[in-house]
Amino acid sequence: MISGKSLIVGTWADGSGTPFSSYNPATNEKLNDFRGVGLSQIDEAVHGSYEAYRIFKSFGFEQRAAFIDEIASEIEALGDELLETCNKETGLGIPRLTGERGRTCGQLRAFASLIREGSWQQARIDTAIPHRKPIPKPDIRSVLQPIGPVAVFSASNFPLAFSTLGGDTASALAAGNTVVVKGHPSHPATSELCAVAITNAIKKHSMPAGVFSLLQGGDPEVSTHLVKHPKLEAVGFTGSSRVGRILFDAGAARPRPIPVYAEMGSTNPVFILPKALENRGNEIATGLAGSITLGAGQFCTKPGLVFMLKTPDQEAFKQALVEAIGKIQIGNLLNAGITSGYKEKISAYVNNPALTALAGTDMASATLFTVKAADFNANPGLEEEVFGPAALLIECENQEEMMQAIDQLGGHLTGTIHSNEDAEAGAIKLALEEKVGRIIFNGFPTGVEVCPSMHHGGPYPSTTFATATSVGTAAIERFCKVVCYQDAPQTHLPLALKDDNPMGVNRLVNGEFTTNKINA
Amino acid sequence: MISGKSLIVGTWADGSGTPFSSYNPATNEKLNDFRGVGLSQIDEAVHGSYEAYRIFKSFGFEQRAAFIDEIASEIEALGDELLETCNKETGLGIPRLTGERGRTCGQLRAFASLIREGSWQQARIDTAIPHRKPIPKPDIRSVLQPIGPVAVFSASNFPLAFSTLGGDTASALAAGNTVVVKGHPSHPATSELCAVAITNAIKKHSMPAGVFSLLQGGDPEVSTHLVKHPKLEAVGFTGSSRVGRILFDAGAARPRPIPVYAEMGSTNPVFILPKALENRGNEIATGLAGSITLGAGQFCTKPGLVFMLKTPDQEAFKQALVEAIGKIQIGNLLNAGITSGYKEKISAYVNNPALTALAGTDMASATLFTVKAADFNANPGLEEEVFGPAALLIECENQEEMMQAIDQLGGHLTGTIHSNEDAEAGAIKLALEEKVGRIIFNGFPTGVEVCPSMHHGGPYPSTTFATATSVGTAAIERFCKVVCYQDAPQTHLPLALKDDNPMGVNRLVNGEFTTNKINA
């Protein structure tokens, strides 16, 4: 039974704000009633988060890791109820959601392992030189530490992996912070079930209740009030450019500014070079069609811009792509707002004389349009993300037009190069290094591996901080600060900085990386 | 001969903006006339910086390192002229400036060594697993890369080490960026000489001229125009909270926001615990007096707040501190603005009935006031930095009052604990971890070691990003972004990510730190 309540510092409470309901996007059937939280309930949640932080941060790494492992187990213990509830709210289908649940639990366990291993703390030690002239060198040591209460704004397109207990929450908890989640209003029952799971883990591990709160609601005021709370220290957000920027601005304009790590829209340019087209045209067309339509085109890494150089193989490729797209059935979009937004954008494409429709204007398949590079370059709005199964093919007369297009691009999460040792690849790669967070060679941008080297980020407007990733273990760094200790007695040092290195972590000691003890 | 011009992309140009002059703060004698730059000259400098970046970033690490080493040599080659010019403009004295020149050249050479060693790039590699089920794992590699043109705002209080060729410029260049410096108007001839030095290094190493520009001027409009330039990528600033916040806001409010790393005011609380006072009262008094008065109290790490618990030794300590301060002669302050600001603050202290003067209200020595913790806690304005040789002694009736004071504090660069195994030290350290960037035990906060573990930063308002340091080799991270490569051919990978690890850097390979080659 879904209660329709919010979880505020361990108590399930009726929201004192605006009521809303959830809907099945496949059938438009109404599912559940909820009440959004009121402003005083937000204050209560952040205050409780702050009080809990003081306790939670003092727990040992093993306690923290075991708690996070337990969250994963509790998600799994929800069983089919979670998948069925989530499928009703999103229409993403049980196979996809089963995979996404696996990814969500895998992420949590990866962060638990990371905490236990300990090298993520970036311990640095420079030992004293008491007899240095003209003044003695003190002993200096620094390490990453948690920051305090973190707000997480759930995404609609990954109702498990980028939502209530997704990567932002996992990485914030792993660093030793407490979390207040603002649940996405298009899958509130899914969020409630996840909150039940973490509540069970909190009880089993005797964690302070305020370590996690879930605020339900869809009012913009709720979001900005949360970001402005004086005790909040950072924000993780995945969603639209418009909302991401509003929250970023709210964080920056506070009396005490805080970082808002927003992962926003991205159109993920793809460059298909002549030799690759000649050698692998059909293969690329099939792969691209799959990537454009994955999750009904609602991936932040969906390839929305496909650049080609004029070649004899171009027409055959276009035809192969149209055919491949035509074979793929598109499911419903995530909610009514996304559906109407998508239709509006496609209708603008149809009415744009510079664009030619190749597929999907009947909405029976993904949509594909083509445009000459000169027109694309003269019309910067065409770079904007179309959230849904649509892509734009940009036909470049020559490399100069292609390079000019890259130079004009804003920031994107990814850029893809298909090259069979094509001469143009080097220049394109160099240019993309200034424009995207991840450069994929001869592959497709959807599918974001969870691993230490993954960078799911990119220059603005794809994110608000080009140094930050929201996927992979480096995501933990967003929710840490550096604390440095000078001439501290051993008893006052964090574990990772103690002489005998009890965790055995990799440390930068007097400029060299080592797991050795000091003076041993 | 000082030209009074600005260096704009390799050309010495008369500023088209507001004229200003430099003064000797010890004698009020006028020294040189300058013309501040106009807005179109700023545009020219940043545009040239952007063009130069595309060339500079492609140079090898050895080329970059040799260029930075050369800058240090060229500073030294300026000889006594630099020291004498700088002393006239700042009155800081030749011995101090000789030391600061050594620090400045040492910083540059430390960054040159860092580049050559290469591990600062944080290379991460996760190798492919082609047969993984359900889908193959791609090869993912990530590394830090430069970001583009960086603006550096010079500080008045370190006319060499935090100015034209100081730590911000050194770390930005080391990462592979180009730099536009806005020189501080209170030491413009010193800035000009430093610009001559780097111009020589640019010529000797055939660097693009736009790699460095120096803009002279004091108009606030010049500063905000620079921060708002669309091609700028980041800002380093050292100075007042007021100006730092203006620039931070300008950076955040841009159509494309950029980070403004501002290191601003700090009052650096010191906690002297009873047993330390009993055992080392005189020693602490002498050290503290030296730290308060170093550089006429114009260090960002000057201890301005000294907290004590009520003990029988308290009065003797106060007397010892007053005596020690009385023995130290204070030089001139850096400029007329700082002098009048200091006098205003001291006059407000004198007129505050909660404060009692202990020393220096005649301005013959540093000033020392005392206040009861209850009054301090009721008067949050007393936490604000007094830039100059002043400190406030806060007398706490008990630990509770002391802890309440810490809880109310904003962010500071440092916090200091004097403890001889005092029981209170643990709780104070835990509380300070949330408030300061560096915790010093039984020492003094002035004197900031340049080393990998140094963190010269702290929570707002001491800086705008609690993760960033402006001293030490980690300062380079502020001016980098992450770029990730998926399934990239070896030829397209940056050096640090190539299989055979030609630089021999420390890398995180499949979760383990190693300098090993891949598949070797």
Automatic annotation (TrEMBL), chains A, B:
Highest taxon in the source lineage: Bacteria
Keywords: Oxidoreductase
Gene3D superfamilies noted in UniProt: Aldehyde Dehydrogenase, Chain A, domain 1, Aldehyde Dehydrogenase, Chain A, domain 2
Stored InterPro entries: Ald_DH/histidinol_DH, Ald_DH_C, Ald_DH_N, Aldehyde_DH_dom, Aldehyde_DH_Superfamily, ALDH_KGSADH
One Pfam family recorded for the sequence: Aldedh
Segments forming domain Aldehyde dehydrogenase: 12-463
SUPFAM superfamilies assigned: ALDH-like
Annotated coiled-coil segments of the chain: none
Protein name according to UniProt: Aldehyde dehydrogenase (NADP(+))
Species name: Agaribacillus aureus
